Amino acid sequence: MNFEICTDSVEGALAAVKYGAKRIELCAALSVGGLTPNIGLVKACSNTGIAVNAIVRHKEGGFVCNADDVLVMKLDIKSIKDAGGKGVVFGILTVDHAISELNRELCSYAKSLGLEVTFHRAFDFVKDYKSAIKKVIEMGFDRLLTSGLKPKVVDGLDVITYLQENHGHEIEIQPGSGVNPQNALKIAATGIQNLHFTARKSSGGETNLGMGELMEVDEDKIKDIVDLFK
Fold it and tell me: Up-side HSE of residue 208: CA atoms within 13 Å toward CB?
């Protein structure tokens, strides 16, 4: 089993190295689903030796983008590559919740830089997942991060199973959202070879003035999940 740890810190990257994860998905603002991390963080995490796949999502609140957004995303992709990133994670939808053609340009550009490309959980908002996965594959994405169209992946295993059985030979299907030591083996029973999960917990420190909650790496969660597959 390949493990991808979703993190927002160098500490998370170091924990991923410690427990043998294959890569991290690096994000800022995990509380809103993840936004593009700053380049200093990309570089620092890359220096730990872990493969860094960085999310490319510069604004919260949805996945509909225009040409100006694509320009911003291309600039971010180039910066991530220059900072040592090994891959990028993004996804653009139309207003009708279909896979946008704008993804094609970004995917092609990222691959021209030698980056691997993951279509992220924007996929979980599509109306027709059977046609959507075909388009994602046709555009050249290497991997799909999905919760099976549900808030938590354990409730979307029918979709995960369909995607793996019908398209797992064409694209890596990587379940994520709510993966934990209690359900990881059940999710793995769908036949997937990649698991994605966050590993952070409240530090218990005070937070004030609307600046967000202080979080720290949950190494026990990483260890407990990894140990299930030894």
Answer: 1
pLDDT tens-digit series, residues 30-89: 989 999 999 999 999 999 999 999 999 999 999 999 999 999 999 999 999 999 999 999
- Residue 173 lies in domain: 2-228
Please give the Cα distance from 15 to 220 (Å, whole number).
10
User: 114: how many CB neighbours lie within 10 A of its CB?
Assistant: 9
CATH number for the domain harbouring residue 187: 3.20.20.380
Q: Cα(156)–Cα(110) distance, rounded to whole angstroms?
A: 29
Interatomic CA distance for residues 20 and 222, integer angstroms: 10
